Amino acid sequence: MRKITICFVCVIAFLCIFTSKSKATMHVAMMDEEYLNFEQQKYDERIKKAKEEEEARKKAEEEKAALEKETSEKTKTQKTEVQKSSKKTSDSESKNNGNNATVAVAKAAAGKFSQKDIDILYKICHAESRGEGEKGQMAVANVILNRVKSSDFPNSIEGVVFQSGQFTPAASGSFNSISPSAQVKESVRKVINGERVFADDVLYFKSVSSSANWGKLEFRVKIGRHLFYAR
Asked: Which pLDDT value is given to residue 68?
């Protein structure tokens, strides 16, 4: 009987020890699980915060880009409106100036050329350079005014243009009926008012198709369908 009692006590003690260890193990396991849950929650919060910050950054960049685009478009619109306004003003001024072009040129050339000379210059430049670009038309006018300045030629536009053997169109019977284009007039006005294509020593030009031998002259430049020479 004593032995049975001892065995029973031992079993009870073992069960108590086992139960205690199991509880301790479960407690530790629960603590570990709580810790892991806590860490997981912290990690999830960091990820969430990082995502929110990234979304906020992207949103700020998008708002900035949209604002810059809006500002750029407003600036372009304003520039366009200014350009349109300037063009309207310029067109209006050009129209008004075009109606009084001859008077304006006469005033600009006051004391230098008569209106008759200016009209002759329009016609000879139209006859010699129609179909050329602005530079080609200005170049012809430049040569004629260079001759007016030179002591080797008459001292007026009329004298230079109608000098014997110089300008074929001037000798034709239809010269006076020539109607200069607006483009030619504008090119000539620029030369009359001081713009130049080349220096004063360029006094001659001929068509690229001409077979005339000008070996004694110094070739300077080809503009359009004309070759220009200096003495």
From this structure: 82
Please list, residue by residue across 106-143, b when 16 or more beta carbons sit within 10 angstroms of its beta carbon and e when fewer do. eeebeeebeeebbbbbbbbbbbbbeebeeebbbbbbbb
> Which residues have a Cβ under 8 Å from the Cβ of 127 and sit 6 or more positions away?
167, 169, 170, 175, 178
**Would the pTM count as exceeding 0.70?**
no
Residues 6+ apart with CB under 8 A from 157: 113, 117, 118, 120, 121, 144, 145, 148
Q: What is the pLDDT of residues 91-117, one digit of tens each?
A: 555 454 444 444 444 444 445 799 999
Q: What's the CA angle centered on 36, arms 52 and 16, to 5 degrees?
A: 160
Taking the C-alpha atoms of residue 120 and residue 215, their distance in angstroms, rounded to an integer, is 30
Q: Which of these ranges, 21-30, 197-206, 214-223, has the smallest mean pLDDT? A: 21-30
Q: Which DSSP state fits 109?
A: T
Q: Which residues contact 205 (CB under 8 A, 6 or more apart)?
A: 139, 140, 143, 226, 227, 228, 229
